[in-house]
Amino acid sequence: MIDVVNLTKRYAGFTAVRDISFQVQRGEVVGFLGPNGAGKSTTMRMLTGYLPPSSGRASIAGFDIFDQSIEARRHIGYLPESTPLYHDMRVHEYLRYRASLKGVEASKVKERVGDVLEMCDLREKERALIGTLSKGQRQRVGLADALVHDPELLILDEPTIGLDPNQIRQVRELIKNLANRRTVLISTHILPEVEMMCSRVVVIHKGRIRASDTAENLLRKHRAAGEIRLEVHQPPQGAYAQLAALKGVKEVSEKMAGEECSFLLRTDAETDLTEAVLQLAQSGNWSLRSLLRRKPTLEDVFVDLTQGD
Amino acid sequence: MRTFITLLGREVKSFFYSPIAYVVLFFFLIATGFNFYSGVSFLNQGPSEVTVVEAAFNTVLFWFPFVLIFPLITMRTYADEFRMGTIETLATAPISDWQIVLSKFLGAFIFYILLWAPSFLYFTAFEQITGKAAAVAAGAYGGSYLLLLLLGAFYVALGCLASALTNEQINAAVMTFVAIFGFFVTGLLGFILNSPSQAVRDIISYFSAVEHMADFSRGLIDSRPLVWYISMTAFTLFLNLQVFQYRKWKA
Questions:
Q1: Is the domain of A132 the same as that of A179?
Q2: A108 in reach of chain B (CB within 8 A)
Q3: Do the interacting molecules here have an ipTM over 0.85?
Q4: pTM for the predicted model, two decimal places
Q5: Which residues touch A262 (CB under 8 Å, ≥6 apart)?
Q6: Fewer CB within 10 Å, N side or C side of chain B?
Q7: Domain that residue A51 falls in
Q8: Cα–Cα distance between A15 and B81 in angstroms, integer?
């Protein structure tokens, strides 16, 4: 559905997007992650035909985004960052305008607008001026606009930014429902959201793609994948060495706080050392206060991939 | 074509979403009405060689509000879209940039025509009441209104160009005013300069909206201003497209 090859965007003085390539298959829901200024919006703007690429190419549903821009755009429902809307129009008026602008047949406009109003739960607000709506409602109007011509591909740039937790949940549910029969490229900072919704994750940092995989695979491959914390009361001499000697341990750190000592063991993702640590503690008669295996989160992966350099 | 009509429809309607359209219509009606009144009362003072139409379109009272309306009409066109970010939803819809530029221009131009529409009634009313012709011939009407359209097209295009250059309506309005005023004053140089050479006078005459109006309102339809205004409008719109794309692509 999306095919990006060596796409680059240079501005005077800096390169926002460097030579990125990725594919999105029909029906996939792909999370597009990266810190602010990583090049997410720039990439999305190139895909939607707003910005021309400096070099490289990309196509949407087989149409080149530059040479066949208009055709490509027909297949896209785009929600730009911060959801710009005409505040002096009414909701239904705006959606009707957008529908016919995007080439929905005159006879179908009313029906389509009715459908998206229903989908986005905007029926009660259809006659309201957009300027009087709350942020969450505006976000839904933006989504309704993205959907009104029934596009195969949705490109959503931070659809949940600035919303309260309830609104975030509403929008997330909505997107989840939409994803059923569409391809979705969504950028966000809310990582649990990505794990919940996306079949694949593309991480971009400083204009380069750092990773492109399923969330599970990213977690498995992650450096700090396995982590075990244990707290021991008055640990015996040599506890550190014994822990470090366990098979599969990559790194041990130790922190004393009075008579309590906490150890942190790092392993790779697959090995689960809780059993081995427990045996060691029992055989050595340690007074174990807690033993915890922490699974890495997408946040760890994200931080790891996008910090430094 | 249907999408263009949709775009154009929104542009025209957008004037009426905000109160400014009604304010402009109201004051413009008062200004042109007063201008017409003073034209007629000037003619009332004694015999004169000018017709009512000439008197109405060749006074300071005509030119002053005329120059002022363009910044008001055009300042919103692009500046507001850039400021609100709606330019992004607009420019990613499946429409070409030319369609956007033309719809914004034509939208403002149609509003400009709406502003002038009531003025036609003044002359009709004059003829009904006095039983005398307001102009010597139909050509004088045609000429006056044709020049209004030509001048209007060029100034509206200038206004759109200024609006595309900025995010702030007020900046757009000031730039438009300065540009139009600049053209206007250049045209007046012919009255100020001491015996300019023929070449200079020829060049200045292209800029002189006042002289053009003096001719056209007498029914003298010269092809030079006609070509000048049409080509300047086209050129300004071409620049407008370049500026629009440049700002969009720089974003």
A1: yes
A2: no
A3: yes
A4: 0.86
A5: A229, A230, A231, A232, A254, A255
A6: N
A7: 2-220
A8: 26
